[in-house]
Structure formats: structure tokens, C-alpha cells
Amino acid sequence: MAPSLTLFFVVEPPSYQYLACYLAGSIRQHLGQEVDLVGYCPAHRMSEVDPAAIETLRRMRCELRPMLTEGVFDPAYPHGNKIIACQQPRDTDWGGFMDSDILVMQPHDIGRFLVPGHVTCSPAASIQWKPEGLWETVYGAFDMPVPEDRIMLMRDWRRPVVPYFSSGFVLFPETHRTATGESFAQTWMDTAQVVDRIDSLAPFRRPYLDQMTLPVAIARAGLAWNALAEDDHFILGGRLRGRPFPAKRPITAVHYRKWEVLSEAGLAGRGYGALQSQVGVKRVRRIFDAALPEGIVPAEPLAAPTVQDGHKALMGAVTHVRHEGFFLEKWIAHYGALVGRENLLVVIDGEDWVPDVDLTGLQVEVITGAPRERLSNDKFMATEMSQHANRLRSRYRYVLRMDVDEYLALDPALGQDWEAALCTMDDTGYAFAVGVDMVQAARETGTLDRSQPVLGQRGHGFVSQAYSKPFAISRWAQWSSGGHRLIGRTVRMDPQFLLLHLALADAGVMAERHAARGGDGQHPSFVQHAAARASGISDAGLGSVLAYDQALDIALAEFQVEKDGSPAICPRRARHPLATNRGIPIRIPDRFHGLA
Questions:
Q1: Are residues 192 and 186 in contact, defined by beta-carbon separation less than 8 angstroms?
Q2: What whole-number distance in Å separates Cα of residue 5 and Cα of residue 95?
Q3: Do residues 403 and 491 touch, judged by C-beta distance below 8 A?
Q4: Cα–Cα distance, 361 to 354 (Å, whole number)
Q5: Which of 31, 165, 288, 566 is most buried (most C-beta within 10 Å)?
Q6: Mean pLDDT, range 39-60, rounded to an integer
């Protein structure tokens, strides 16, 4: 009878949760259903995992399990998560850890890797970082001699070296125990913890601690190493980046590190094809559009948040800013009154400026590296802000996320309080607000009193499909570029909430913002966008208006559906004769005055 085997890997947001799905698809496609699959996620990040990734893995009979990682290494050592994963209990004869950025390329007998009394792993690509006396120090910490065996590294053939292995693909006997009762994984962890405290290795321990301790742990556990051939763990990139992939070689697995490297090698289609062969879609986020594979039952619905979330604060709010003054001050005042200043997170874009606004008592972070071309910047910020919002969910039942010139309000006519209103999104985990794009109509010539609410001084706008945006989450979510939709979710508008967009509410403020951001010296994409938006400050489209409540009814009926009546993935333009690309023209009801 063939020994049983569990292949396992780390499933961690933001990117490794998706790469793990492609790895699982390739395993199922080429190694069959007999191998057990398990994904491990750091327990404190389980709530951030995309439900689409969880469902994709479930449909491939891969269970997602939490593992405790906080405090295991001090300071934190993400590479050590593979050692923690190896320590988790499993019921098979053998365990095999694989980095999530691996793809199995063709069918083969993985049982040939399972050699009794051995840990199977591949020689590392190189060891250029090695300090003088490394192995004497590491083995000496356990009163062990440096082994006499020598191996050739995968990509450095100058001379044989002391055995040094990659930790990206490691297979080991789960039932093996040392004389003191320790498993191989426990021995590896103990070895890593000891070496992590050797002061002389401090400049070299991270990120190589897992690999420098692997051969030592194998020897300490009383096992031997069995070296994988290069074709069974073929590492892309590095010195080989840009060279043609050796398609004629019998390569059974590639370790690509970055998806772009896989694409450059012409192998991304293999990953997409593997996933499609198992679950019917090439993209993880499309999983809920696919029929269930044979033998897979529908998933149990996710439980809605309950009173067990009582240890969390009710609401937190997050935005990002670059060269903002007026709107940042307004945003802090508006949301600070709603959730408390201590529950506001302001993410500052760039180290090249300092807001001239009182940030006392707020949570403040600075991010760097944002591209200055508008579409690329929108995409970058969507990823960054989604990550920030998802992290805040560990402390808040509901996380509000919007741009600095967007102000959320409850419709006063409904007489609802915030907690009761937000609870209506518990079943879905998110909600869209009805967007109102405010404009300064040409007839509104009065000077804006900046110390007072804008609504009441400005009274025109459009119930806008573009600004009817997802504004709050209580579960993991990923905003799209520009924040106009949630990836993998359909539009669910809540008529209780208004999202008031004030960028065009005053021509003077808009001109100041443009100048503060660099004026016409910005990237042309921002200059063109600003000019197009500025043209909206006029009476264009406002000659005839609908009552707000009538426009609201139209928005709820038509923004949320496609032309065929199916749920929309982003709000769609209304079909009313007065509706334009900007939305449905309205005059703001008096009951909204003073809200923002």
C-alpha cells in the first residue's frame, strides 16, 4: 500500500492566497485526488482571506486551517511560517511543504520522493550571502561537526559545498521521532530558534534562517537528505530570467516567485488552465460564477457577525490624502464626530509633503512608492487602501472607507441611528451608498463660507452611478481601481446612506486643490482629468431636475442591475430621459442641509 501524503502551503493575503489556488489546481490536475491538500493561514489574518479563495480551495478539496504565528519568532519572521506550517498536526504518513508560488507542470509519481529515513529537498540555487565560518558556527551551536558530504548547488557549479537546501519544497516523514520524541518539524523549529539567537549571525539570519537551519535539523533529527533533481523543482528567474524556458526537459514543477516571471516564461497559461480544469474558471475571483464540480456540495453560508464581535469598537474610518488641506480638515471633523478622532486612520501618500492640518489623536500612516500616472495611481491606492481597511476589521465591526472629498450621511427622513443602519449589511458584509455628486451651479455665485457645512450653501448635484460606491465592510473585501466597486461582489445599495462627493462643490476650492497638487506640472493624466472635471462646474444638465426621492427610486431600481436584469458588478447608468453620464439631476432637499 502506497504511503499517504499531505501537500500543504501557506495561504496568506494579499497575493499568496491566490497563488495558492493555482498551486492547488496544478496539484489536483497532475497528481490526482489521492494526495491530501491543506492550506495554512496565520490565525490573525484569517478574517482577511478573500472568500473567493476559500471557496476555490474548498472546491478542490483543500481545507484552509489557521495556525498561530504571532510571537513565535521575535522579531516576526514571515519566512518562518513554513516551519510553523510543518509543525501542524496531520494524519498522513508523509508531509510535503510547498511554497505557494510553485506550479506542478505534468503528471508524475510523487511517491518516488518519499524515501524512508530521508527528508527530500532540492539544493539551493546559490549561497552568495554566506559569511566566513557559517557552518562551523551553526553546527557548533549543537556540538556537531560540519558534515563531510558536499553537494553542487542548483545554479552555482564552481565547486562542491556543504549541503545547503532550498526550503521551498520539503517532504518529510510525519511519523518519525527522535530519541527524545520530537518530530522532524519540531527539531527544525528548535534548531531555528537556537540559531536565531546567535549574535554573530545577526546580519545574515534574515531571511535565510529557515534554509541555513534545514540541513542541521535533518541531521539532528537522525535523518538523511535526499536531493531533488533540478527538473523536479525548477527555479525560474534569477540568472535564468529572460532566457527561454527549456520546454523539452521533463520538468515536473516550477518555482516562479512572481507571476510576472511565470508570464515572461510563457507559463501563466498553464496556471490558468490548471485552475480551470478543476473548478471551471481561470480567475479565482470568478469562482462564484462557476458550477460546482462533481461531488462538491454547496458551501455553508458564512455566519454573519453577532454579539461575539462586542469586543470591537463599532466603527472606524480610513482615507488617503495627497496635498490636501480643506477637504482633509472637513473629513476629520465630519468622521471624527461620527466615530471619534481616535478611530480615524489617515494614510498620507508620499514623504514629500506634510499636511497643514491638526492630526492630533488620529492614527496616521505614510505610504511611499505610489505611481504618479492617474490610472496606475488609482490601481495602487485601491490595493493599499483595501489592505488598510481589511486590517482595521480586527478592531472594528464596520470599517468605513472613502476618499477625502466624500462624506457619508444618513438620510434624516428615515430617523435611523448608525448602528441600526449598519446592521442591515451584516448578511452581505458590505454596502453601497447612494452617491450624490455635488456641483457649484453657475447661478450659485456666493462665496463659500469654509467654516460652515457645504450643503445649504450649495444645493445642486446629480444622483450619480459613478459615485454610488461601496463605503463600508464588515468582512474581507477588495476595492477596484478608483474605489467604485468591490471585486467579486455585486452592487447592493442601501437607501439609508448618502455618499456626498464635494470635489466640484466650489470652483475656488477645486482650483486650490489643483495648484497644491502641482497644477499643470503634474502627470498629464491628472491635468487632463482635472480639466474634464472642472468643466462640470456649470448649469449643464441642471435646467430640469427631479425630486431627490424620485431620483432615489430610479437609482435603486436601475443602478443595481444590468440591462438583462441580472445583478450589476458596478452601478449602471439610469435610463430616465433626464439622466446623463453624470447621473440624475436634482436639487438637494432642505433636510440634507448641514450634513456635510
A1: no
A2: 6
A3: no
A4: 16
A5: 165
A6: 93
**Looking at the predicted structure, is the pLDDT value of residue 422 above 50?**
yes
What are 389's three cell numbers?
481597511
Q: What is the mean pLDDT of residues 538-562?
A: 87
Task: Provide the 3-class DSSP secondary structure of residue 588.
Answer: coil
Q: What is the DSSP letter of 323?
A: S
Short-list 20, 215, 165, CA closest to 103 = 20
| The pLDDT value given to residue 297 | 87
Instruction: Report residue 193 as a C-alpha cell.
Output: 530558534
- What letter would DSSP give residue 251? -
pLDDT at 536 over 60: yes
Yes or no: say if 2 and 111 are a contact pair by the CB < 8 Å rule. Answer: yes
Q: What is the mean pLDDT of residues 467-487?
A: 89
End-to-end CA, the chain: 71
Radius of gyration of the chain (CA): 28
pLDDT digits (tens, 9 = 90+) for 293-333: 988 888 865 443 333 444 688 999 999 999 988 899 999 99
Asked if 36 contacts 90 with a C-beta cutoff of 8 angstroms, the reply is yes
142-168 residues labelled b (16+ CB within 10 A) or e (exposed): eeeebeeeebebbeeeeeebbbbbbbb
Label residue 2 exposed, middle or buried (CB < 10 Å: 0-12, 13-18, 19+): exposed
| CB burial string 236-266: b at 16+ within 10 A, e below | bbeebeeeebeeeeebbbbbbbebebbebbe
Q: How many contiguous H segments (helices) and E segments (strands) does the chain have?
A: 14, 20
